[in-house]
Amino acid sequence: MSVLIKDFKDGDEFVGYYLIKEIEAKQTNNSIPKDFLDIVLADSSGNISAKYWEASKTDIETFFPMCLVKVQGLVQVYREKLQVKVIRIRKTTEQDAVSITDFIRSAPVDANELIPIIEQAIDSLSHNDIKSLVTFCFEKVKDKMQSAPAAKSHHHAYFAGLAYHIVRMLEIGEFICRQRPFLNSDLIKAGIILHDIAKPVEMISEYGMVLDYSNQGKLVGHISMAANWITEAAIILGIDLESNVIMALQHLILSHHNLGEWGSPVQPQLPEAVALHYIDAMDAKLQMVEDMLQTTAESEEWTPVIRGLENKAIYRLKL
Amino acid sequence: MSVLIKDFKDGDEFVGYYLIKEIEAKQTNNSIPKDFLDIVLADSSGNISAKYWEASKTDIETFFPMCLVKVQGLVQVYREKLQVKVIRIRKTTEQDAVSITDFIRSAPVDANELIPIIEQAIDSLSHNDIKSLVTFCFEKVKDKMQSAPAAKSHHHAYFAGLAYHIVRMLEIGEFICRQRPFLNSDLIKAGIILHDIAKPVEMISEYGMVLDYSNQGKLVGHISMAANWITEAAIILGIDLESNVIMALQHLILSHHNLGEWGSPVQPQLPEAVALHYIDAMDAKLQMVEDMLQTTAESEEWTPVIRGLENKAIYRLKL
Amino acid sequence: MSVLIKDFKDGDEFVGYYLIKEIEAKQTNNSIPKDFLDIVLADSSGNISAKYWEASKTDIETFFPMCLVKVQGLVQVYREKLQVKVIRIRKTTEQDAVSITDFIRSAPVDANELIPIIEQAIDSLSHNDIKSLVTFCFEKVKDKMQSAPAAKSHHHAYFAGLAYHIVRMLEIGEFICRQRPFLNSDLIKAGIILHDIAKPVEMISEYGMVLDYSNQGKLVGHISMAANWITEAAIILGIDLESNVIMALQHLILSHHNLGEWGSPVQPQLPEAVALHYIDAMDAKLQMVEDMLQTTAESEEWTPVIRGLENKAIYRLKL
Amino acid sequence: MSVLIKDFKDGDEFVGYYLIKEIEAKQTNNSIPKDFLDIVLADSSGNISAKYWEASKTDIETFFPMCLVKVQGLVQVYREKLQVKVIRIRKTTEQDAVSITDFIRSAPVDANELIPIIEQAIDSLSHNDIKSLVTFCFEKVKDKMQSAPAAKSHHHAYFAGLAYHIVRMLEIGEFICRQRPFLNSDLIKAGIILHDIAKPVEMISEYGMVLDYSNQGKLVGHISMAANWITEAAIILGIDLESNVIMALQHLILSHHNLGEWGSPVQPQLPEAVALHYIDAMDAKLQMVEDMLQTTAESEEWTPVIRGLENKAIYRLKL
Amino acid sequence: MSVLIKDFKDGDEFVGYYLIKEIEAKQTNNSIPKDFLDIVLADSSGNISAKYWEASKTDIETFFPMCLVKVQGLVQVYREKLQVKVIRIRKTTEQDAVSITDFIRSAPVDANELIPIIEQAIDSLSHNDIKSLVTFCFEKVKDKMQSAPAAKSHHHAYFAGLAYHIVRMLEIGEFICRQRPFLNSDLIKAGIILHDIAKPVEMISEYGMVLDYSNQGKLVGHISMAANWITEAAIILGIDLESNVIMALQHLILSHHNLGEWGSPVQPQLPEAVALHYIDAMDAKLQMVEDMLQTTAESEEWTPVIRGLENKAIYRLKL
Amino acid sequence: MSVLIKDFKDGDEFVGYYLIKEIEAKQTNNSIPKDFLDIVLADSSGNISAKYWEASKTDIETFFPMCLVKVQGLVQVYREKLQVKVIRIRKTTEQDAVSITDFIRSAPVDANELIPIIEQAIDSLSHNDIKSLVTFCFEKVKDKMQSAPAAKSHHHAYFAGLAYHIVRMLEIGEFICRQRPFLNSDLIKAGIILHDIAKPVEMISEYGMVLDYSNQGKLVGHISMAANWITEAAIILGIDLESNVIMALQHLILSHHNLGEWGSPVQPQLPEAVALHYIDAMDAKLQMVEDMLQTTAESEEWTPVIRGLENKAIYRLKL
């Protein structure tokens, strides 16, 4: 069993399996420059910088991002931070019996549990057209939903982060519909499942890490893409494009960012659209806080600043 | 039994008890001007404009705002709106056995039920200093809390509106603490009860209607007033002013408006402060929607615009 | 032949045909109030306030907005403005041989000339899919395009204003494609025709005057409606929803307001999208100026302020 | 003939003439540091980083920015980018028969063609005072206009960029005056020529590259400088300072940035001032797009982000 | 001696001299309308609304704004405010021996004292060019400076308000130069005298009341007008337009509003320009407070809101 | 006597005493990396970068920030900047007879003179409760006030900077109270002394350099902390918490940043609060200018940009 990165201490010598998250061939700044590999090693507990000073030309062509490696190394302090000096490194083979999914950050609940919860929520929709429309859109991205993050770095930026975000929002949505029965729970559920449904196509991700935005993601954006999917679904399912149900679902999707400057071309004008925006905000903001606290060393009183929270850090208060 | 104002129809003749919400002596614009009374009658279902053309000098000195009257009148349409032509009017006496509280807008739950719920929440606080501090502040305004609105017109602007807002937020708070156990439920509950605790002193209200802001309300504001109360409570209760518990409660109060331009001198930097802001926002915004739908005639598809919702109206969608 | 409203002078007595643009039954503020009609008369040259003091109950039920009337009246100055005292008034009959279209503000070019120009532009598109998609969307609103204004009051707010706006933009577009050949002229033309194509459905108008926004107009908005139409057209025409041509047309429509706070969910990222925004802005702003100068009396040096031009007035400079 | 920088490929060995755009003497980070020269080589097709590891003390004192050199070098990939390893380098002499103007970025039209076009436009002004005033201001900077860029980096940031910007705006202006005859074409032309006329004095540039802003440029700014020139011209030409023509030209100059936060102390209030702002914006924005596409490798789908276009990149769409 | 308007009480009958500040002929809203005069009477202590119900056609043609009248009237309460019922009214003649200047609001110091103080400050300038330039500009408006207000309503909006503003700023300027000797006192004094020097030409005023902005005031604005005057002065006085002294004075004028959105095309970049902005702000804001307290009845705890102070009212605190 | 850092010239060899402001152990980027010390040396005249290439392991453990050292060094130019090559370095001992206070930036007036001036101002307060309250708060931080800076880097960021800021503001306050006698000078003086009184607790500083914000500083902020101190003082001194004097002092403190986005939960609504904001702004802004000019080499025409002045640089104008 490999030592977790977050448990590394100065002076440790170790052998274990890790993921290469980033790798770059660099040259020392000598008059006769020498190649070395500047690496970021990762596992599910965090990242660490590593240097492989003895890298050969072959090494440089062997290792690349997202590849699993077995490393023998030494943990040292460099400029007040821990860093690994790589002594030996090789790619893993089938015999090592390790899987990339063991080395990445994931939602706290397994994707295989999240998807069925969303499907149950769809199943529970009582309005037939809403159920068909949500099903249509969900099927489009069901496979990607297994792994898609909810954002590049803002919140839920990990494996199955989007599915986890939806499931948690469904919990809040269920509560709020019980508390305020004037809300239509079909619209709340549908809005929650649909609001970010096009994100897996807006962003190109691998193992929960966003590599880039797709061209369509940049030029159309996930909000308008999802609105288009409703149109597409309606035509294919034979639902009247002028019906209130189409108008309502489109409105929920389009308005969920609340303001034009946050990307919504219209502002919430249905009770459920107002609710959807705040359900989304509450889940996203609190998850940012929770994630940041978890990835900040216990010994630190303050987290790094969080862009989505007015660039403020969070304090780990002891009462 | 008096006919409810929201049930008035053109041509109705009626006799019943109503509240004078506003009254002004005016003069007709004739060359020989004549006095009349321009009145706003109210009951728990709404308001209506009324004219008393035959007002005598004595009448002008008899009637004033917040006084209960028995009115014989005629409902007419004037400029596309209903209006009452007063035929006879007199102040009520004890014999009429009517009470002002029957004629005002109130929270949907009785104040006598709301206060004990808040007190139970205080009772359930497990941290002794927090419990003492919250109790101290709550006792300061307990009497006013029976009737205080949460705002002048923004949201929960009615009898016991503030207590109702707190109780509903406690429900959300309880849910969110169950969903996210890393939140300290004592801080969440305390934050909810304290966040607007100084509003009954910031605003001068009668029967749930804000008449004005107090001088202290304008010059110090309810946020800083509540922060001062924590200081006062700590000194009187002998709690260390430099303790984390004092810092935390002050932070929750000071940061709950989230941004400087919304009145918070610091931004949320505790997990519970982030949660508090969104619990407050969700309850306030959804209550605005619910209240506006209820006070808009069923026959109207759209409510009037709501200032607190980006000046948007809400649509009464039929699926 | 009726005297044009803009030629009315104090003391004029006249008989002529006019349009009732607004009408309201009011009562004089006497102790014994008396009914009268407060009217706004209009013709193609402008509006004027009119009072009919002698209105009978029948009159009140006879006249309504958008009805044509024959009026005998007297022009008077009241509070520094001209006003008509109505002496006699009756609805027009077929014998009067007047048509409502003679009494409304229209684009300077006849709708029957504008539509064919747009159709020629569509015809000239060289990319077949673009041509089919634009045709599909244009056919949806071709009838309404005969009369639809481009806005409620902002710019081109008159009969056939939208078609006129499109035609003028096509002229600018043609010039700019000649000047900058790197621009794709198919995309420029398509973007111009499509950018406001859903406005006739977003707004409910009559004779070029916007009466209200439709529910869909409020909840979805013309930008997203037009994007949806592209999706609809693609499906019905069998064009690949993932093709670049669909992405490009959607992008042009979605981004043409340039900024999120102006209603665009994405910002221009194609050269033609950048061009489209400025072609639209230039035509709209200069038309505001031209319209305002035309409807301001020649004797006035300054127009009223124009909301769309930073609330500035325009000066009629003599060199 | 030298190979163009944009045609360099990994492994190329070359000999050719280039411009030193930037040069800095650095030291290797060894315990016994060694001098080397860190250079940016340029030609009209682009820039490339170059290192001269064998630089002697004499070399360090020989080469400086804006000097032309003959280089023997080797093209290598370093950190995913091409870079030149300099083998031999010397300054050019008269015998090399190369001129700096062959190595800099220039407007696509020759300065010697641009200036006469502007002069013809001045010639075509029909209002005598306007013609004299424009001539006076133009003569002030005519020499600098041969080379001046329109901005430091924002748009038209190259040799004769300003003259090119003016000429292209004159084309748009001519079109828009034909399309909208109510515009005074003398004011449009004068506004175009004058709007940035003080930029060659506001910014200190060499070969179309801005080195810095002048003190006057920082403390007064090109907008107010140009307004002052009108005053100066009027006095020297004997034109009444209180005349409408002076007021109009000053207004066009002062208002052409449209908003206070963009540097205009007054907002457009003449039809021609509104037009001028949009002619300027359209030309500047589209040139940014065109320039950025041209300097981005054909193989790249997306340009770098453009600050003047809401920090958006432009997509090279294939239909 | 006339009773001061601020001393009027309900029921008073009076005879005295007053100024007609506003007057409008209106008609009663009867079926047979009757003319009356709706008047605002003023004296140096304040304004009051007055009605002259018995106005004849001759009266309507006799009285106009800014005319002095002798009035016999009755003070009444109407809609919670005092109002005068005019019994008799006539224009004053020479025999009445009253002067309009006795009836208007003025700076607390006499204009005849203020102008010499400014002239002394000019005299005390040690730099000859600065002295000549300031003198030139001051002479342009010296006559108007006797009466000109500093603004329409914002601050110092009364007879000689501008001169008073300058004099008070000179006092602050003198203090700050003593406190911080690194400031150049010539530039501070010159900046103070010049910063608003073009306001008497930007605004058309009579007896300290702004009637309108001039065309030049709207199209060029007082900031750029003053900058132009410096250019004009330099040419006429033979001072080098490129000299630092011209650049400095222009900079002080142009930057004194501090931000682009407040009308300054450049921001302060000389120490004296930073100082000038804060001297101006401090004097203007405190004068707003002082003026508003003086024109608010002593019995009122709070003044009306002040637009220039974030729309806040000022509280009359008793310690 | 040591040579002042600001007097260092290229090629100088020197021996002298300096303060280590920052120090970091780094490694050369060789294949066999070597330790060296990267140091920032400081004295009261400024800072300079220094490298100690021959640092031993012992050296790395010996030197730390804020320690005084004797250095033998050589001044060299590296990348256009002066830099020190350390030849020998040792910590100072008692025999060296140097004190850290000789090596830090300080207010231009000695702290031992500043504190008595503030105490005299407190003594001169005529209102007893104000005097007691101010005394209470001042005593809380009197010791820290000897050295506390007024800000981290914004303004007065040096030893005794806060005391100096207060003393200078008292001078302005005294002047403005003389100029405008309607201002209550007790409130002005109290407001000046109290407005930043909690800064020494909000920020953790050493020798006038801010190391960090305290937790309370981040979570409560100096504005609310000072308001709380007033509450605390009132309780301990037995002054009525509801009295006007408490309300006034709290208001002055809370509103002195003027706007919500600048950290004030309420806006100025007392004349003295308006004055306090502008006294504070004027002193802070002019001090930024003065400090920046002093720490910029005389040979530089322009200072670096100043964040607190709209990111503008200041020009050293010669007249």
From TrEMBL, chains A, B, C, D, E, F:
What keywords are annotated for this sequence in UniProt?
Answer: Hydrolase
> What would be an example GO MF term here?
hydrolase activity
Domain HD/PDEase positions: 158-294
- InterPro entries to which the protein is assigned, alphabetical: HD/PDEase_dom, HD_domain, NA-bd_OB-fold, YhaM_exoribonuc/phosphodiest
Q: Which domain of life is it from?
A: Bacteria
Return the SUPFAM superfamilies for the record: HD-domain/PDEase-like (SSF109604)
What is an annotated GO biological process for this record, any one? rRNA 3'-end processing
Q: Which PANTHER family does this UniProt record tie to the protein?
A: 3'-5' EXORIBONUCLEASE YHAM
Protein name as annotated: Metal dependent phosphohydrolase
The protein's organism comes out as Paenibacillus sabinae T27
Taxonomic placement = Bacteria, Bacillati, Bacillota, Bacilli, Bacillales
